[in-house]
Amino acid sequence: MSTPLTPVMTIDEVNSFIDENFPQINDGGRCYFFDNVEPGVAIVRLEPDDRHLRPGETISGPTLFALADFAAYVVILAHIGPVALAVTTSLNINFLRKPTLGPLECRCRIMKLGKRLCVVEADIHPAGGGDSVAHATATYSIPPR
Amino acid sequence: MSTPLTPVMTIDEVNSFIDENFPQINDGGRCYFFDNVEPGVAIVRLEPDDRHLRPGETISGPTLFALADFAAYVVILAHIGPVALAVTTSLNINFLRKPTLGPLECRCRIMKLGKRLCVVEADIHPAGGGDSVAHATATYSIPPR
Amino acid sequence: MSTPLTPVMTIDEVNSFIDENFPQINDGGRCYFFDNVEPGVAIVRLEPDDRHLRPGETISGPTLFALADFAAYVVILAHIGPVALAVTTSLNINFLRKPTLGPLECRCRIMKLGKRLCVVEADIHPAGGGDSVAHATATYSIPPR
Amino acid sequence: MSTPLTPVMTIDEVNSFIDENFPQINDGGRCYFFDNVEPGVAIVRLEPDDRHLRPGETISGPTLFALADFAAYVVILAHIGPVALAVTTSLNINFLRKPTLGPLECRCRIMKLGKRLCVVEADIHPAGGGDSVAHATATYSIPPR
Fold first, then answer.
1. What is the ipTM, given to two decimal places?
2. What residues of chain A, 45 to 84, have a C-beta less than 8 Å from chain C?
3. Where are the domains of chain A?
């Protein structure tokens, strides 16, 4: 539960900002897609390719970490704007189930947006629905504005 | 998101089990109340008293930890039954807001119930509703049955 | 590894500050003892009594959490002084082994002391030596000075 | 503190096993180097290249996560042998300082090696020495042998 938050950037503004400032996130071909924002929440989709796979037809742990971390960055950016860059200070991730191949969706929710710290929850599950494959909570430091 | 789970103990059965096996949890007067279970979820209420307070009229961090840990134990017990005792192997807690005095509710949700490990999410907020004061994820080891 | 830090309070000054400001930590009889500080490190001893026990002759999880959190508070206080009160923002604890009855020692080490955040590592083991029973890392927010 | 452990594989055996079973870890050019093992400890070096960088001349968070996770896998493999594959169940990472460009060393220590779970601590610092840039603790599930 949390007091309602209001995004201050549109999806297009966030995507443009990412493309300009973090082009390397989609190096080797666009794989992250951000097209869904709600108050306090952003959903980022990963369309995995060979870069993200491990033998046994599964998606690697670092790929799931990177998706949670990127989606958390996106939800914070959408709610505080591009004036300040949030920096990850800690992240705790639980790997719940072996992900099958195919698109994953990360639903990221702001649990607290303070002046100096933002705490976010990220749930990763198959894009079409299904049991969560990973769950993370992370803290970001917000530089003085 | 998770596949629906089914409780295997009633609220009364859980409470009797706790009273018999963990009487010390309510030492100094009953403070934990468990009266709400849903598939995969349990809600435990803490009615704090002097034991749980810190100067500045707030509830102590160890009290919030103990509430999350106990509620997690309860939701697992309700879903696996009293045959095996779950043991906390790790717990990550984020303190989000200073709790005001008054009853707190911990909503605990099973994220994964495996044969050997159970991963649980716990959200602590004022009993009447309001912003979360703490959020935890924890892993429990389930002895072989 | 970390750049050497220098304590700014003596052990006696820390103990006096704790006794004045957090007398409730030793409610029911003194159980926490702080008598060892080194650059970046503090060691706090817990002499457990009935309050801290669980059936099966073990020390409870919340007791280990409280010891880690208190020792972290002490090491930060000793290194930044009493002008600002650090507040726990997150804590991750791994329970490694069932503690036997008897005094426990928590060795707490500052991993980073920034202007706004302090990150601490805490290792809990039997006071006489032996395998660790719990290990925690925690982040504290330091109010503007 | 922990009871001494004994590696059961040599460095060469571990490297051969990794090359055969996880060739993709060094896709795009060898970047991970494992040439140091002690009882309970392994040290893995990362020689970063363009893949691992972020604008601002720093090494990305997912790169640090991947290094900690890989080094933890290596230390466990070296101590339990190739008969069973450890799977990451949870990982908590604190980002302490912005890493400068250049080789990083991850020192990974087993805190507990149980029958079913292994808990590991990982410290990442510049290869030549210096303040830690990240610290992680992680839990791995060990399949029945």
1. 0.94
2. none
3. 11-141
